[in-house]
Design brief:
- The complex is a heterodimer.
- Chain A is an alpha+beta fold.
- Chain A contains 16 helices and 15 strands.
- Chain A has an eight-stranded mixed sheet with strand order 5-6-9-1-10-11-12-13. A three-stranded antiparallel sheet of chain A has the order 4-3-14, with no helix packed on it.
- In chain A, strand 5 and strand 6 form a beta hairpin.
- Chain A starts with a strand and ends with a helix.
- Chain B is mainly alpha-helical.
- Chain B has a two-stranded antiparallel sheet.
- In chain B, a hairpin with a 2-residue loop joins strand 1 and strand 2.
- Chains A and B meet through helix 1, strand 7, strand 8 and strand 15 of A and helix 3 and strand 2 of B.
Chain lengths: 483, 95
């Protein structure tokens, strides 16, 4: 049987405010346990929440960035459930009147097309604390530093039809919140958490199937794997005539497994009601206009600018513009390196590959955009070959030396570009390979001739101790062999 | 409006309140009476009335994003039943 896959996303975005949503406790990351949990966060009797204006400003900025309606009057509800990392016994959230109404984002697909994914709404709420299940004499340890950290929960419509679209949408939203500066976007630390709702239906059917929710996806790669895994699991069940249980599943990326966390029927009775501790929050046009005026350049606009300013193609511009830190790095490289296309190749190639391999973010890069720009300058002016450039990159990355020209000198990577010297080498090599020269000259197919040139390059590179400019060698070879 | 024994048992579980068999019958009667009283409100026509979010006709004041709280962990943990390495300890929770 053929199936349609239906995917919707729920995204928790930790807002980069200095303080919590309802108290003046710091939200700084990495503090000692419970040193940033005050009486309000701990739900001590007699305390009252006072909302953080910045959380509202950030939520409004997000709403504007996803083309959404902003709710002028938003109300907080209590979502009641018991868990030790939720001291109040309820989460303060928004149900009926979320601050951000329906909106949309356009995502770029691998085919080159764009697809519109609708945003159902986004609401403000507070994060819970953290439970540590390591062994505390058979007990659970609770750290409430995170309790009360402001979140926006973004809920999309089920508009995605495969893992690629879901990941493209997730990346797009990641690019938007990091460009806005309202979230640091660090998925490994839980600053941005994606839950994926997946269901299957017979191809072409109008009726949605029962969905499951998969949590704990702390990288885009795991998200892609988890979707593939869950689609396969559901397909196996349905094809054997079974039924899907509506449930929350936890994905383990290291093992590519998932397990049921809780079935919704058991626990889904949150008894929402309006929070009596909080009055409705009203936002006026001036507040929204101020937020609109403070919007920085967003990925879509940046992509257009990269195409115009740097002459990049659609794909390269889209990729580099999607993440604000990567975009800034690229711009620093291009500004110093002058050759934007070459800068783009190096940022997307060697640099990104190295970050991925070491699971680092752009912010943790040991090299700067300007350093990579210096390297680009030396590639563009033919001082070094691309093989030599890789050696320089290694030395920069490992911290062996931070100056590109010093590395080139120290490692003797400077290419010989003196034509007279190179011509002499070519003459010598050709003289030592008369058979190959004759073969080349008898060949009439220019494609095969081109291939045969490679046979001379090895001896030439050897003769020049790897320092001959390959491009110039090639030109000289063609000239000499042809004539 | 009536409330069933099952409703009472379910609400008790959700609220983590232990209710024994003998109490259920009394609660059935008391809660039923309260619901009947509240039920009288449904006689009012509320079609054109926006649901009230708060009894006070006022708007929430917002706070600037400035840290105003200091670390008082010791004071708070002095009254906690069990702590270790700065963490509050609770009976083991397994999902």
């Amino acid at each position: 049987m053929q199936w349609d896959i239906v995917i919707g996303l729920e995204i928790h975005v930790q807002l980069a405010t200095r303080t919590k949503i309802f108290s003046g406790s710091s939200t700084a990351y990495g503090a000692e346990p419970n040193t940033q949990a005050n009486a309000v966060d701990l739900a001590m009797p007699g305390t009252l929440p006072v909302p953080n204006e910045q959380a509202f400003r950030y939520a409004v900025m997000f709403g504007l960035a996803v083309n959404a309606e902003i709710e002028r009057r938003s109300v907080f509800e209590r979502k009641n459930y018991f868990y030790p990392d939720l001291p109040k016994g309820y989460q303060t959230t928004q149900l009926e009147r979320p601050i951000v109404g329906p909106g949309y984002v356009d995502i770029d697909l691998a085919s080159g097309d764009t697809k519109r994914v609708r945003i159902h709404h986004a609401h403000l709420e507070e994060d819970a604390g953290k439970s540590l299940h390591e062994d505390f004499h058979g007990m659970t340890g609770i750290d409430l530093n995170r309790a009360g950290t402001p979140l926006i929960e973004v809920v999309t419509e089920p508009d995605m039809a495969n893992a690629d679209e879901a990941v493209a949408c997730a990346r797009k939203l990641h690019g938007i919140v990091t460009s806005l500066g309202i979230c640091d976007g660090d998925m490994s630390q839980g600053s941005m958490r994606f839950d994926v709702n997946i269901s299957l239906k017979p191809k072409g059917s109008e009726t949605l199937g029962t969905r499951t929710e998969t949590k704990n996806l702390n990288s885009f790669r795991f998200m892609e794997q988890a979707i593939a895994h869950e689609v396969e699991r559901q397909m196996d069940i349905l094809e054997e005539g079974g039924t899907i249980v509506q449930e929350t599943r936890l994905y383990n990326g290291d093992r590519d497994e998932s397990r049921s966390m809780r079935t919704k029927e058991e626990a889904n009775d949150y008894r929402y009601f309006p929070c009596p501790d909080l009055l409705p929050v009203e936002i006026d046009d001036a507040f929204i206009d101020e937020a609109r005026n403070s919007l920085p350049e967003l990925p879509d606009a940046r992509k257009t600018r990269f195409k115009e300013q740097y002459g990049l193609n659609d794909y390269d511009a889209g990729l580099l513009a999607s993440d604000s830190k990567l975009a800034a790095f690229f711009e620093a490289t291009a500004e110093r390196g002058k050759d934007a296309k070459l800068a783009s190749n190096w940022v997307q190639g060697e640099f990104s590959a190295r970050l991925n391999a070491e699971e680092k973010s752009v912010a943790d890069s040991p090299i700067s955009g300007a350093q990579l720009g210096d390297l680009v300058v030396r590639i563009a002016d033919n001082t070094i070959s691309s093989a030599g450039a890789k050696k320089v990159f290694e030395a920069l990355w490992s911290g062996e030396n931070d100056n590109v020209d010093a590395i080139i000198d120290a490692k003797g990577l400077k290419q010989v570009s003196d034509t007279g010297e190179l011509e002499k080498m070519v003459d010598e090599v050709l003289a030592s390979m008369p058979d190959q020269v004759a073969q080349y000259q008898q060949e009439s197919d220019p494609k095969k001739q081109k291939k045969m040139l490679g046979g001379f390059m090895g001896p030439l590179m050897k003769a020049s101790k790897g320092q001959g400019n390959p491009k110039l060698f090639n030109e000289i070879l063609v000239k000499k062999l042809g004539g | 409006m009536t409330i069933s024994r099952e409703d009472i048992e379910k609400v008790a579980v959700l609220a983590r309140i232990r209710v024994d068999e003998a109490q259920v019958s009394a609660l059935e009667k008391d809660l039923g009476n309260i619901l009947d009283l509240v039920d009288q409100l449904s006689a009012a026509d509320t079609d054109a009335v926006e649901p009230m979010a708060h009894p006070l006709n006022a708007v929430q004041r917002l706070r600037p994003d400035e840290v105003t709280e200091t670390n008082q962990r010791e004071a708070f943990q002095a009254i906690a039943p069990a702590t270790e390495n700065g963490l509050y300890l609770v009976p083991r929770v397994i999902e």
